Amino acid sequence: MESAMIDQLTVCLPNEPGKLAQMSRAMGANNIQIHALMVADTTDFGIIRIVCDRPQDALSLLLGLGYDATLTQVVGIEVSDVPGGLGVLLDHLASADLNVEYAYTCPMGGRTVDIVKVTGEPLAIKLRESGLMMVSAEELCTPRQIV
């Protein structure tokens, strides 16, 4: 089950023009591919959540550049791309007594994946028993070409 956990980069950035672009350029210049991104803002700063192909390298890079960054474990869960699909996912998590702290959606080669931060114990067992279609970091971060 451990392979179902995905390392997500969380970065706090000043809420100023160009700061997100600057961070993204630094990652790109170091051949780190961003596959999912969520931005939440406050008055003074933004919280950036990123799933990328090399999270440990990205963390080292951003810390070295002076960014406030951490790694958090999240899960990727395939969701039916129909009305009510998200509700089905959330019902599964609730029935397993897992709490959703936050979630965001990521397309994956014609499929829809929700990146979810869940809490509850024992997490790995509950996720395995939930019957949900888990998506690994490797699946999520496989490069795809759009033609």
Tell me the CATH architecture of the largest domain: 2-Layer Sandwich
CATH level-four homologous superfamily name of the largest domain: VC0802-like
CATH names the topology of the largest domain as VC0802-like
Number of helices: 5
The count of strands amounts to 7
Percent range for β-strand residues: 35-45%
Query: Average pLDDT, to the nearest integer?
Result: 87
Shape: globular
Biggest β-sheet description:
7 strands, antiparallel
Structural class designation: alpha+beta
Please give the alpha-carbon distance between the first and last residues.
Answer: 34 Å
Helix content: 25-40%
Poorly predicted tracts of residues: none
CATH class of the largest domain: Alpha Beta
Order of helices and strands: EHEEHEHEEHEH
Pfam family, one: ACT_8
Domain ACT: 8-82
Organism: Tractidigestivibacter scatoligenes
Protein name: ACT domain-containing protein
Kindly describe this structure.
Strands 1, 2, 3, 4, 5, 6 and 7 form a 7-stranded antiparallel beta sheet that branches. This protein has helices spanning 19-29, 55-64, 85-95, 123-129, 137-140, and strands spanning 5-14, 34-41, 45-52, 68-79, 99-108, 111-119, 134-135. The longest helix is centred in the N-terminal third of the chain and has 11 residues, at 19-29. Strand 2 (34-41) and strand 3 (45-52) form a beta hairpin. The model has no long low-confidence stretch (mean pLDDT 87). It starts with a strand and ends in a 7-residue tail after the last helix. The protein has 2 domains: 8-72, VC0802-like (2-Layer Sandwich), CATH 3.30.2130; 74-140, 2-Layer Sandwich (VC0802-like). The chain has 147 residues and is of the alpha+beta class. Helix content is 29%, strand content 40%.
